């Protein structure tokens, strides 16, 4: 089982991912399971050039270090394992949630959690384990007015349930939900999680659009390959898609 260390909390940080990456690149010996969280993340990052917005003291922003003995292609599905753990936590709180390839958790068609895995620039030893930093941004206390001001559909635990758990109290529950999902992924890759992912993922069997570097490809989401790549069927056949942003409609 993945053992998370007691979280290190900061009052304020531009980005928990960036801080852990910088510490690793500066030579810090951060064991697997190291967790960093902040009460106020001022420059959170999403995929690409996207920003991740949090409300000080009311949303959960954290990152952890994982040393994974997996093949390089299996790293593509790490965010999917994390998304399943987040979905387990939120389902336990009474939220109807789905996962969305490759790194989101949604309630209805609104994003409630984003996940960002990043690999530090370390000297290449040519051997495993790989070292990855994984950031998790979970909307806890976002209000409806704040959600409406974001440029894509968003929601929060507070909006969906009326409850407002303290992020510091929620983090141990999140780590407890992540541990078994990460353990299965570390031992079996995406193949060990495929059934659970497909039972929860949004868009399976539906017409979807994948956007990657400005290009758009439309087709039916048939399923997922052994490494978590999306399998998209269009008029020319079925192709494996490794990167991109999945659109379930024109807004997501």
Structure write-up:
- With 252 residues, this protein is of the alpha+beta class.
- It folds into 2 domains: 8-200, BirA Bifunctional Protein, domain 2; 207-247, SH3 type barrels, CATH 2.30.30.
- It is built from 6 helices and 14 strands.
- The protein has helices at 16-25, 78-92, 144-148, 157-161, 167-188, 194-200; strands spanning 8-10, 35-38, 44-45, 51-52, 60-68, 97-100, 104-107, 110-118, 130-138, 207-212, 215-224, 230-234, 237-241, 245-247.
- The protein has a 7-stranded mixed β-sheet with strand order 1-2-5-9-8-7-6, sandwiched between helices.
- Helix 2 (78-92) crosses helix 5 (167-188).
- The protein is globular, with a radius of gyration of 17 Å.
- The mean pLDDT is 91.
Structure at a glance:
25% of the residues lie in helices and 30% in strands. By secondary structure, it is α+β, with helices and mostly antiparallel strands.
Highlighted features:
252 residues, alpha+beta, BirA Bifunctional Protein, domain 2, SH3 type barrels, seven-stranded mixed sheet, five-stranded antiparallel sheet, 14 strands
Query: Any idea of the CATH class of the largest domain?
Result: Alpha Beta
Strand order of the largest sheet: 1-2-5-9-8-7-6
Number of E-type strands:
14
CATH architecture of the largest domain: 2-Layer Sandwich
Number of self-contained structural domains: 2
Rg, please? 17 Å
Mean residue pLDDT: 91
What share of the residues does DSSP label as strand, in percent?
Answer: 25-35%
Poorly predicted parts: none
CATH topology (fold) name of the largest domain = BirA Bifunctional Protein, domain 2
DSSP summary: helix tally: 6
């Amino acid at each position: 089982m993945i053992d998370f260390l007691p979280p290190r909390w900061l009052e304020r940080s531009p980005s928990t991912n960036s801080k852990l990456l910088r510490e690793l690149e500066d030579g810090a010996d951060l064991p697997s399971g190291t967790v960093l969280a902040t009460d106020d993340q001022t420059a959170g990052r999403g995929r690409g050039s996207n920003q991740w917005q949090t409300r000080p003291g009311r949303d959960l922003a954290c990152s952890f270090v994982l040393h994974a003995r997996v093949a390089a292609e299996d790293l593509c599905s790490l965010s999917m394992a994390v998304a399943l753990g987040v979905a387990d936590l939120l389902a336990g709180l009474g939220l109807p949630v789905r996962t969305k390839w490759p790194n989101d958790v949604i309630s209805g068609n609104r994003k409630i959690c984003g996940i960002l895995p990043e690999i530090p620039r370390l000297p290449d030893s040519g051997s495993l384990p790989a070292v990855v930093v994984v950031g998790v941004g979970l909307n806890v206390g976002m209000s409806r007015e704040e959600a409406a001001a974001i440029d894509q559909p968003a929601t929060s635990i507070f909006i969906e349930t009326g409850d407002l758990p303290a992020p510091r109290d929620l983090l141990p529950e999140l780590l407890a939900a992540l541990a078994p999902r990460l353990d299965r992924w570390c031992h079996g890759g995406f193949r060990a999680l495929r059934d659970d992912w497909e039972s929860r993922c949004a868009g399976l069997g539906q017409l979807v659009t994948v956007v990657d570097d400005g290009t758009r490809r439309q087709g039916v989401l048939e399923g997922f390959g052994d490494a978590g790549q999306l399998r998209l069927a269009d008029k020319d056949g079925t192709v494996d898609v490794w990167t991109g942003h999945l659109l379930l409609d024109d807004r997501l």
